[in-house]
């Protein structure tokens, strides 16, 4: 019996290891390629370790690689994305939390219908929104600006964030709200003093989700931006598609890593809360 | 002076009528129990008193003031919930202080109140802990502490003991009673447990289907239940219901009870023996303790099916007039299953119900 279970355990770990390697291989290739020189890339093999580590490609990707006609690297795009993602995540998360609080704890006549309509927003393909959204941004005078992108991401993210918070808050007993009302607390006081302090897991989930969605978005970034307001995903695309005499794989790889870095950092910092948040409802029952 | 008066309160959701005209009035310092099976509307009534739900019609008076349009926080009430509803991110001290803070009680006074309440409930050593670090009984105490800190006109308890294990429940029940005797506050207490209702209440309102079936003192409700439902709901084991006809034999009015053998004619006490009722189909209500074991040839011969010794008493399961009955007897003389026992019903405290309307005949 013991031998048999040990055998199967070994098999399971073996399979897991192979799958992990399979998933990590692209990252390995990107990392090693980004620190190789072009000569080494031409001479060597895709999987070989770098002989001579150089960060020249990183530096070029950051500050001097050409994206189309202008050659300032990814840096301006990166800061555009930062300027876009921080307010967009903050606003959509806060609004989602308040929405979820109202839809779960302060239900009004028709609130279920409102929730169903918001839920519908989760399933809408964003391509459908492009034209009407462009008109809306024009009317508001926010076309082709970072604030316009923030607006688009807030509107499109609200459905998900509302859903997250509403489902989390449904699990909080109504008696807590009743007790707080009898204690003399009103709508906002209950929200800030009772509900929000209980929301750490779902706040983390929502922030990670929204950050990843907005940072990695390409569609809105390419449609609703101008030269000055392009986010990093568009910059990366332009960088990789700008053809010069030679294809600089190391610069492309470094640029892709730069573009992916913030989401990786967010996952590493908050990842354990992410898993905890996703399973919190199940455990509390 | 009326501490709480509920006048013609109804509550409906569309065509569903939860409460159908509730009238209750209690004096200051009384302990009112709302008891009934789940779905009877008792929790809705509690929420209406608290102001968490609005009645469809009718009036709620607290301390002689109509509070229909008064917000819960301004009704001068405090409530203890079934789940205790302690704020999970705050420690015990903050939980008790929260209501004082929102009411802008000065800090020094808050500390004084918390110290007094904590001492009274013996939770001083728990003030720094989070609710998740407390046992069920401790949470219960903190929930009561939070209510006590506010010193309200009216306390509402919503099934506060139903989440505790049996032993702790008995302990906390006694503590709540002691607290009430010491503080002389007015309490409204919702429960589905008839023992809690009997042991705690000054006044009991037995509810079913949104209607108060009977409103009175525990003893009144026990001795003179208004109808079959109340009679069956209050008391454990439940009252025995024996169908029979009122008859007259040689000038005596009584009922015939049949166990194993010939029917035995038992005379009704004068208050029940009205000539006009002869021939009427009734249900005789006899509490289990209203049976005695008699010597052979006296009382009604019954075949004992099961016995349940509880220690102080032994329950005998048998049949009378084809209906299952339970008799509570002293264990020393208890017969064995399968034996024939002679049960002498004491009709002195018996009640009669109309077989059709199920209401008690006076």
Describe the structure.
- The complex is a heterodimer of chains A (285) and B (362).
- Chain A has 13 helices and no strands.
- Chain A is an all-alpha fold.
- Chain A folds into two domains: 2-54, no CATH class; 75-284, MetI-like (MetI-like fold, Orthogonal Bundle), CATH 1.10.3720.
- In chain A, α5 crosses α7, α7 (146-170) packs antiparallel against α10 (200-216) and α12 (232-241) runs antiparallel to α13 (249-284).
- Chain B is built from eight helices and 22 strands.
- Helix content of chain B is 24%, strand content 35%.
- The model of chain B has no long low-confidence stretch (mean pLDDT 91).
- Chain B has 362 residues and is an alpha+beta fold.
- In chain B, β12 (252-257) and β13 (264-267) form a beta hairpin.
- Chain B has helices spanning 42-50, 92-102, 107-121, 136-149, 166-183, 194-200, 218-223, 228-233, and strands spanning 2-13, 16-27, 31-35, 57-62, 65-66, 77-80, 154-158, 186-191, 203-208, 211-216, 240-249, 252-257, 264-267, 281-286, 291-293, 300-303, 306-309, 314-320, 323-329, 340-345, 351-354, 360-361.
- Chain B folds into two domains: 2-233, Rossmann fold, CATH 3.40.50.300; 240-361, Nucleic acid-binding proteins (OB fold (Dihydrolipoamide Acetyltransferase, E2P)).
- Chain A binds chain B through residues 173, 175-176, 178-185, 189, 193-194, 197-198, and chain B through 47, 50, 52, 72-73, 77-79, 81-83, 85, 87-90, 98-99, 102-103, 146.
């Amino acid at each position: 019996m013991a031998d048999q279970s040990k055998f199967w355990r070994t098999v399971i770990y073996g399979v897991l290891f192979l799958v992990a390697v399979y998933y990590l291989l692209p990252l390995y290739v990107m990392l090693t390629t980004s620190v190789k020189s072009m000569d080494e890339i031409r001479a060597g093999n895709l999987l070989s370790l770098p002989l001579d580590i150089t960060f020249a490609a990183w530096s070029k990707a950051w500050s001097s690689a050409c994206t189309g006609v202008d050659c300032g690297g990814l840096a301006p795009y990166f800061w555009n994305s930062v300027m876009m993602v921080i307010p967009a995540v903050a606003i959509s998360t806060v609004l989602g939390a308040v929405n979820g609080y109202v839809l779960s704890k302060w239900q009004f006549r028709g609130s279920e219908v409102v929730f169903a309509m918001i839920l519908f927003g989760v399933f809408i393909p964003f391509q459908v929104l492009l034209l009407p959204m462009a008109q809306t941004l024009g009317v508001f005078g926010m076309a082709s600006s970072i604030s316009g992108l923030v607006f688009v991401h807030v509107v499109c993210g609200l459905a998900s964030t509302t859903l997250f918070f509403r489902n989390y808050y449904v699990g909080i007993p109504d008696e807590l709200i009743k007790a707080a009302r009898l204690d003399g607390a009103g709508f906002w006081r209950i929200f800030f003093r009772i509900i929000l302090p209980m929301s750490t897991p779902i706040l983390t989930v929502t922030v990670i989700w929204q950050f990843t969605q907005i940072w990695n978005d390409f569609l809105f970034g390419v449609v609703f931006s101008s030269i000055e307001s392009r986010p990093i995903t568009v910059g990366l695309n332009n960088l990789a598609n700008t053809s010069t005499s030679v294809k600089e794989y190391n610069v492309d790889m470094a640029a892709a890593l730069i573009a992916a870095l913030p989401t990786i950092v967010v996952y590493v910092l908050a990842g354990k809360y992410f898993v905890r948040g996703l399973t919190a409802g199940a455990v509390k029952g | 002076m009326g501490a709480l008066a509920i006048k013609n309160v109804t509550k409906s959701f569309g065509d569903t009528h939860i409460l159908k005209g509730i009238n209750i009035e209690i004096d200051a310092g009384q302990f009112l129990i709302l008891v009934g099976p789940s779905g009877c509307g008792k929790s809705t009534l509690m929420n209406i008193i608290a102001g968490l739900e609005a009645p469809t019609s009718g009036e709620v008076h607290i301390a002689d003031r109509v509070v229909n349009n008064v917000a819960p926080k301004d009704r001068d009430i405090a409530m203890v919930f079934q789940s205790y509803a302690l704020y999970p991110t705050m420690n015990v001290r903050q939980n008790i202080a929260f209501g004082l803070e929102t009411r802008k009680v000065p800090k020094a006074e808050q500390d004084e109140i918390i110290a007094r309440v904590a001492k009274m409930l013996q939770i001083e050593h728990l003030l720094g802990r989070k609710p998740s670090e407390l046992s069920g009984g401790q949470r219960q105490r903190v929930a009561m502490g939070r209510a006590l800190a506010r010193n309200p006109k009216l306390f509402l308890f919503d099934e506060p003991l139903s989440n505790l294990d049996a032993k702790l429940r008995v302990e906390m029940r006694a503590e709540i009673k002691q607290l009430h005797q010491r503080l002389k506050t007015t309490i409204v207490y919702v429960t589905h447990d008839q023992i809690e209702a009997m042991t705690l209440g000054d006044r009991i309102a037995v509810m079913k289907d949104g209607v108060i079936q009977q409103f009175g003192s525990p003893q009144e409700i026990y001795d003179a239940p208004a109808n079959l439902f109340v009679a069956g709901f209050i008391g454990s084991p439940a009252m025995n219901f024996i169908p029979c006809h009122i008859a007259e034999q040689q000038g005596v009015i009584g009922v015939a009870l049949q166990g194993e053998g010939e029917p035995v004619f038992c005379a009704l006490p004068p208050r029940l023996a009205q000539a006009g009722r002869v021939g009427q189909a009734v249900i005789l209500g006899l509490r289990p303790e209203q049976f005695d074991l008699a010597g052979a040839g006296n009382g009604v011969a019954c075949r004992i099916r099961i016995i349940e010794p509880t220690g102080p008493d032994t329950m005998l399961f048998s049949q009378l007039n084809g209906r299952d009955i339970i008799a509570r007897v002293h264990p020393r003389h208890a017969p064995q299953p399968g034996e024939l026992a002679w049960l002498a019903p004491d009709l002195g405290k018996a009640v009669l119900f109309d077989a059709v309307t199920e209401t008690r005949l006076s």
